[in-house]
Design brief:
This protein has about 240 residues and is an alpha/beta fold. The protein contains 9 helices and 9 strands.
């Protein structure tokens, strides 16, 4: 089981589309679309949200993600109608609908508990660190090795590596999710081309294309393992070859 997600939108098609997108990266997570009014017009439905919560609540908790203001109000009303025990395991995220849902779904896919899934959703849209060009091609930083090679550890708890992307579409949404899930439980801080390697949304901002270089640095007890796993995933073309 995992945390379930309910996507609340004024549009049935929008809610269903966001769920469809997130499902590509989190196949085992229950995603419930609660979009539109009861007759599928533009608006929100208390009954649809309640039904979504009921279907998504498998015991590990439910996270609600909403689009516009009145969707928040209707979702809050749905929370008020829950019994006290269920209220304890249902939360609503203050997050961008698409980015928050994708980030939350990836976190839930890795088995994260509700507080961490909520945090992932709310941290999904972040500015790049000052002086960092998240979209620039990798491999231009000093200290990285040539593409296609693994660097040795710089210290007992540090490791780095650089590889050329060989899959046909580069680091698009699905490979970004695969990388984030692969690294999620490792005891290491991992930076990939200047962004958090455990954040699917930050990885997607890189826009790395086939033939460009993915460079990673890891620090912590699992640093070597992180670089080993990441290198194998990149060389395997993220399973798309």
């Amino acid at each position: 089981m995992s945390v379930g997600l309910v996507v609340v939108s004024h549009s049935r098609k929008l809610a269903e589309g966001v769920c469809e997108l997130a499902a590509q990266m989190a196949a085992d997570v229950h995603l419930a679309a609660a979009g539109g009014t009861d007759d599928d017009g533009i608006g929100t439905s208390l009954e649809k949200i309640q039904a979504g919560i009921a279907s998504a609540d498998t015991g590990d908790g439910v996270l609600l993600l909403t689009d516009l203001g009145s969707a928040v109000m209707t979702a809050e009303m749905a929370l008020e109608f829950l019994d006290p025990d269920q209220q304890k395991r249902v939360r609503m995220a203050d997050a961008a609908l698409v980015e928050g849902t994708v980030a939350a779904a990836v976190a839930a896919q890795t088995g994260k508990p509700l507080p961490e899934v909520l945090a992932a959703a709310e941290a999904a849209v972040q500015p790049a660190a000052p002086g960092t060009d998240a979209g620039q091609a990798a491999g231009t930083d000093s200290g990285t090795e040539a593409a296609g090679t693994d660097a040795g550890t710089a210290a007992a708890d540090e490791a780095s590596g650089s590889w050329t992307l060989v899959n046909p579409m580069g680091l698009h949404a699905r490979p970004a999710a695969a990388v984030a899930q692969l690294l999620a439980d490792l005891d290491a801080e991992i930076t990939i081309n200047g962004v958090d390697g455990k954040s699917v949304m930050m990885l997607m901002t890189l826009g790395l294309k086939p033939g460009e270089t993915l460079s990673a640095t890891a620090t912590g007890p699992d640093a070597d393992r992180a670089i080993e796993l990441l290198g194998a995933e990149v060389r395997n073309g993220f399973g798309e070859m």
